Amino acid sequence: MTTHTGGCQCGTVRFEITSAPILAYCCHCTDCQQQSSSAFGISVWFPGSAFRLTSGMLKTWVTQGESGNQKSCTFCPDCGTRIYHAFPDESDTFSVKGGSLDNIKDITPIAHIWTKSAQPWLKARLTAEHCFEIEPDDFEGLITQFNKL
Ligand SMILES: [Zn+2]
Ligand SMILES: [Zn+2]
Question: How far apart are the CA of 46 and the centre of ligand 1, in A?
Answer without folding.
Answer: 21
